[in-house]
Predict the structure.
Amino acid sequence: MSIASTTETGAAQRGRTRVTSKALNKVVSAVTADALGVDAARVGVELADHTGALALVVTTPIRIVSLDRVSTDNSVVARSGGTILDRAGQAQTTIRDRVSALTGSQIARVTVKVSGVTIQPEERVK
Amino acid sequence: MNSTNRAANRLLIFVCGLLLLVVGAAAAAAVLVPLVRDAWKDTSGQVTDQVASWLEQTQLAGIGVSWILIAVVALLVIAIIVLIVFISRQGRGHTGIALTDPTSEHGSTVIESSVAEHALKDALDAHSEFVGSHVSTYKVRRTPVLKVSVTCRRGVSPKDAAAIVESKLHALDELLGRELPALIQISGGFRARVTKTTRLQLPLRKKKNMPKPLVWLVVIAVGTTAYVVGAKAGHGRYKEISETAKAFWNDPAVKKARARAQKKTQKAAKKAVKKISK
Amino acid sequence: MSSDNKALYARISRRETHSPRSLLAIVLAVVLIIVFAWVGTEVVIALLGLPALLVAPSDMFVSALGVAEQPAAIVAAAGIVAAVIGLVLIILSLSPGRRARHVIDTERAATVVDNEVIASALARHASYAGNVDPDNTTVSVSHRRAVVDLTPTSGIPANRDDVAEAVTAQLDAYGLRPTVRARVQIAEKAKVGA
């Protein structure tokens, strides 16, 4: 099921650009990977139609610090971007804005499914 | 921490026990106690007549068979289905989703169980007090609850173990942004009595998970059915088949056909021999 | 909500410290299924007019009623055995089926501890307090009691009060539910050179 998208330059349309679902997948994966600090290959994307606009379901791991560091250092959660819920919520907005800017598609819903964690190794104490 | 209906288990056991008790006691009393035996003999005749008359009265027109028996079969089938469902519902309860957070009408966040499980296990494995740990997520009363199961080394105080796990849980709450209800299970895997040697005992292997009840059920059912059907019916069937075969073989028409075929074959063989020797 | 969690934790703790009786229930269910299937098959075969597999339903009925005529010994024995099994099942279904665990009251989570872990920790503290080799200490923890058995070294007596104090202090610190009381027993015969 390919999803057609059009771009308009200026007032007149000079042709039609069709962005296939595969391309959309890649874009969404890349944006998500960038927002959450993971490898783009590990992000799964499902595209669906939601009354004319796009609905995205992104399944991704998330990069976190180990729990030992969280218990010893109070500020590390804030420094790494906030709680997982915060970051996922932020990622939703980021994904929606950037994907619609990059592909020109209207996005109705973004559901972020955090399916795993990538634990940052301890930084060496200098 | 699964969703097994424990009341149903106990009810089934109670009902079976009651049935066995009543039937066993009645049978023993009927044989041993003379009063009961005489009363039994007197009533058994009446009961037989009564049941026979019921079966007669309830005959279905056209088939000549009482509908009571058909109803009995239907009841048994329903009972079997209920029992199978009962067995299959033992021990479920795992869930893959730890929490769902609908941020707005434009989207939602779903945090899967593996996030909390992975983070906790990684942190717990770093502690030398624990030989091993295992984290899973169950649904209890529609709420996902974490089950953190740790195996302690010999001599570790349960209070220390609980404190360590709790601090990890607090860290998880901070990291996640939400507090997940949790169960901490502290086990040992070694005997309580200290042995003669001071050699550190390795923890005993954890009891394997019980195989799915449904698999057991299927194996037992298939095995028993196959045996019964094979043994009885097979024997009867074999006899039947061999009788039929013998009857067929000894049938006069078949005998004639056999004789004719034999003659033809002999003739053809002679002809062939003649042709070859020419 | 903390109060929601309290009810949740109470339910979880109760289920974790008692046996679910699953195995027995499954075995009984399987036996019942086999029996029902067999009886159902017999009735269906009888209705269809075919010869019975093992016992025809009418024969079953007749022999059940005529149980008084059967040889007394066998029927009595079978009946008594069945009645005893039935009684055992009834008792099992009604008894609580406590597991060898205790609950620790904690703030953040529901905690259950195996008795083995409690015993192992108490053994370590008791042997230290009594100046005894850990190999000569045995602790058994049951629902409400912890029995500490020490075998002291010959020539070095172990102080019963010290050990009792240490063990009781530990038990109080754990905060177990139901509370466990310590009982210290020092063996009369001590070990030489241990």
